[in-house]
Model the fold of this input.
Amino acid sequence: MKADLNEQALLKGLANNDSKAVEALYKSHFNMIQHFVLNNNGSFDDARDVFQEAMITLYEKVQSSSFVLTCQIKTYLFSICKHLWLKRLQQMGKYSSPLSVQEESISVEEDLVAFEKKDAAFAIMDRALNSLGEPCKSLLEGYYINKKGMQELAQDFGYTNADNAKNQKYKCLMRLKKLFFTQYNIGD
Amino acid sequence: MEDIKLLETIEKYLTGEMSAQERELFETIRKNTPEIDQMVVEHNMFLQHMDIYANRRRFTKLTEKTFQHLFAAGEWTLDHTVPSKAKMIQLWNKYKKVAAIAASVGGFIALTTSAIIMYFSPSLNGNQLLQLSKAIEVIKKNQQVQGHLLNEVKSKVPENAKLISGGSGFLIDPKGFIITNAHVLKGNGAIVINNIGQELHASIIYADKDLDLALLKIVDEDFSAPAAIPFSIRKKMTDLGEEIFTLGYPRNDNDIVYGKGYLSAQTGYDGDSSTYQIQISANPGYSGAPLFNDKGEVIGIMSARQKLAEGVAFAIKSNKIIDLIASIKENDDKAEIKLKISKGGLSNTTNRKDQINIFKPYIFSVRSYN
Done:
């Protein structure tokens, strides 16, 4: 089944961080996941977490240029959530009876493997960034995550000019890279 | 220094900030120097990871905000076909309605806040920090014993509801928007009490546990909206050593209390860049109270104190309020919150006693119930 026009627009919005698209997806699909998780030994909070992870998986999938969704968004999100929840239940040693499922689902193993790989790199970056200390951490976050300009950052942090701030940024970046790659290469 | 220049050049090259000429030159160097070629490949890989990291962080935040926003708007009711686990949510919805109706049920409840129980914050590094909210013990008194006195005290807390936490908060918009700490709101409903003891219903609009900030709105026909807020929110950082003061409700008798100190570090506990460290005697109940500088600008929100070091407290920086309101507006076009932001520089020479008198009515005691 090919995604219809409306769904295409939603996915495009999602790729562009459009809050309206995110809201629409939560509105139309969270209830289904809530129902599923609550019916299978989980809580409302579990449903929220699992659904958020599924949203991130979908978000990262639509970022890639080769992206095609071969089923409805609903089916995709449900399939991801089903797998994630099953895994979590097994980790907790709770899983005994077969899951009670009413929705159709598709095979999403490949996407989940990609997600986990990114998840590992994300965790390494997060650890590296957090072990940098201040002001390095905030300076790099300001530049690479919040996409602030050097001028603005210089002002925020109280550097006398943008050049000094830039210099400091590169010093911090060198430390971050070292921390990141040390971990990353071990991880691989 | 050399390394830094090289890294800068590589980054410029990879992010396409070079002119065609520079680019051509760099590519020749790259071709002829394997070490540099290797560095380019490595940095490209690093930037890709950074990109994924940044995107995911931004997106995760967006989903969290969307969820909280929809949740607060009552988008989801609990699935009743399943034995209820998330009882909190049902209660929350129930009391949200109660609060909105603004009808007070006759109060047979007498409140005593005799026991201030300090507890450790779970989200803030274990037992090193104490949040400054107060836990409130409710004792349902026998009506006969209390006699006629009880009929006069008509509490706006719904009958049978239990007060579980409290702190302070302050108005940021005349329409009734109040900022407080998220940890002050441990219950599902809230009331606020002004400096002359008037209770008002408030609904919890938004709570961000990570930032430890929350937004309330007074929804009560007894509320007379002021024309303007006398203080503004400071956007810029505040300098070390600057004198600061706070007004909050740390005591049980709900009297407003003044405290003064100075800014002792520009980062908070364990280098946290979203908070300041301040030197002030902070008692439970100050949580959510505004922190002012000499000019009467809000520079932060009181939030926690260090357990072992007397007088050391932490305050969330005021620019986090600005960020919070901006993100609420981004998610909700209908949110009509107007912040009074100051960029510093203006001097307000009113003396402290006058300042306090002017500010008092805009600072509230916040109580949360289940």
Chain A touches chain B through 47 residues (CB under 8 Å).
